[in-house]
Amino acid sequence: MRSADLCFALMALVACVWAQAPAQAPAPQTPPAHHGMHHDMAAMHEEHMQQMKDQVAKMRATLEQMKANLTKVKDPAVKQQSQLDIDLWEGMVKHMEGMVSMMSQHEGMGMMGGTHHDVDEKATPPASDSGDKQ
User: What is the pLDDT of residues 78-90, one digit of tens each?
Assistant: First the structure.
């Protein structure tokens, strides 16, 4: 009789624990793989854009320090070399700022400017020169 009582108590305990467990919600449907891929690519693009903006800002700050330090240089040869360095870096920073600006303007268009999936159905084939064939 004792083992029957123990078995019954164990079954009741398991039933109570099972009833206390929270109901699990059905697993959400996973979107098609290509939608997740686009989301991941967009997130990567955003992260890359932010990294580029941060890098260009650091480059601009360093360039401004170089310009400020140029006034302290007394040796004419060193001053000339420093000015040449500043001029080169100024061109590089302006180029990078232009790239960031261009990429920021085209963010909504996707990686290939929005044209890699688009097909221009109205495009006409080039005219053939049937009279020039030999």
Answer: 999 999 999 999 9
What DSSP state is assigned to residue 110? -
Torsion over CA: 67, 49, 104, 123 (sign): positive
- Answer yes or no: is 115 within a domain: no
Q: Is residue 86 part of a domain?
A: yes
Question: Which tokens go with 79?
Answer: 């001053």
Nearest to 82 by CA among 68, 94, 95, 66: 66
Q: Residue 84: how many CA atoms within 13 Å on its side-chain side? A: 6
Is 101 contained in some domain?
yes
Domain total for the chain?
A: 1
Residue 114 maps to a domain: no
Rounded Cα gap, residues 101 and 112, in angstroms: 16
Axis crossing angle, helix 33-70 with helix 76-105, rounded to the nearest 10: 160
- 9-45: pLDDT as tens digits: 656 666 666 666 665 655 556 555 555 666 788 888 8
Please indicate, yes or no, whether the overall pTM of this predicted structure exceeds 0.90: no
Alpha helix locations (H) across 21-129? 33-70, 76-105
